[in-house]
Description:
The protein has helices at residues 12-18, 35-43, 48-61, 106-119, 126-129, 191-210, 214-219, and strands at residues 2-3, 25-33, 68-71, 74-77, 82-88, 95-99, 135-141, 163-167, 170-172, 175-185. It is α+β, with helices and mostly antiparallel strands. It is globular. The chain has one domain (2-219): Chloramphenicol Acetyltransferase (2-Layer Sandwich). Strands 2, 5, 6, 7, 8, 9 and 10 form a seven-stranded mixed sheet that branches. The chain is 34% helix and 26% strand.
Amino acid sequence: MREIDLDTWNRKEHFLFFRRMDYPIYNICFDLDITDYKFFAKRNSLSFTNALLYLSIKSINELENFRYRVREDKVVLHDIIHPSFAYLDDGSDLFKFVVLDYSDDIFDFNAAAYRQARAQQEFFPLEKLSGRDDFVFFSSIPGISFTGIDHTIHLNRDDAVPRITWGKYYERENRILLPYNIQVNHLFIDGYHLGKFKERLDANIRIISSGDNPEKALKE
């Protein structure tokens, strides 16, 4: 993590402009084409959710604007962002937030997500998140193919932690589409950057779904 020098930062004017707003946080929904990805996950015995978590956080980490945060009126840039995701134990209707360190290997990530989720007893391990902002919150609503969604949040204009949720996939014109939502802060992320995020996510899904060696394909 490093502190940004606002005086030499090319985004200074945009940051200060949006910081005048009471609520510069917004979200967008789009359909994610997972036609090939769905079969890739099954073919490689990967959890559909865990692998999509991996591809999402990998895409986040590849884009600088998604790694900016505000700390005590200072802007910092994290080197790595980690996932915190909602998980339901079998037979339970009460979710828990699981905090996981990012791994650049999809198979290691998948296994670690399973281990951490099943081992964790508390619903909200706030001590693991205390003082941290180097993460993204993930959740899913697998029973609904939504077209819009809002997130619970403190009314804090400096909250730059993205929230990502996806819903129930559906078929259209022989393609499998997944409703995908991301909430961001305009302090750091404009529509241009959201477009870049979708490009990276689409590309990572395409790359990993097309090869026999998914980990090697993502690193080429």
